[in-house]
């Protein structure tokens, strides 16, 4: 069982960045609009979706759970760390919790910066750090298997 405050929605707004955990994500268009800034010439986005298979098993859905309060704190630190690498950007990081069907997005990241290389590098850094550090877990459900056989995995 997860601690109190787990698997609830939450959002943290920072100067030039927003981190959120929710049961539904904003549209890609609204996410891009949130980072848009006429000072910046590049916006990099990443959309992670549920694939239909893993290591030869047919995946039917994923279920995400999070220790939201701690995960948002971790995501905030990731933004701070990203700013230490490249200080001039705007970012939105959204991660879903709950059930995510095949083909549906589970994470959306948008980063705007003056130049494309910075946008791409910052977006990738944020993605890899969220997957590696944020207190978010997924459970994979497989076709033809009882739900009790679904597997909990780290979010990497």
Automatic annotation (TrEMBL):
Q: Which InterPro entries match?
A: MoaE_sf, Mopterin_biosynth_MoaE
Which terms does the UniProt entry file under GO BP? Mo-molybdopterin cofactor biosynthetic process
Note the superkingdom of the native organism.
Eukaryota
Name this protein carries in UniProt: Molybdopterin biosynthesis MoaE
């Amino acid at each position: 069982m997860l601690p109190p405050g787990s698997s609830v929605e939450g959002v943290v707004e920072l100067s030039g960045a927003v981190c959120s955990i929710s049961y539904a994500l904003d549209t890609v268009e609204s996410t891009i609009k949130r980072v848009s800034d006429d000072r910046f010439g590049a916006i990099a986005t990443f959309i992670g979706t549920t694939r239909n298979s893993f290591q030869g098993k047919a995946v039917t859905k994923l279920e995400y759970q999070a220790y939201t309060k701690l995960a948002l704190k971790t995501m905030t630190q990731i933004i701070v760390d990203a700013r230490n690498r490249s200080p001039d950007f705007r970012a939105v990081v959204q991660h879903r919790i709950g059930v995510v069907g095949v083909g549906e997005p589970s994470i959306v990241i948008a980063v705007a910066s003056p130049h494309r290389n910075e946008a791409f590098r910052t977006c990738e850094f944020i993605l890899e750090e969220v997957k590696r550090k944020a207190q978010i877990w997924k459970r994979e459900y497989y076709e033809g298997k009882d739900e009790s056989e679904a597997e909990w995995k780290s979010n990497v």
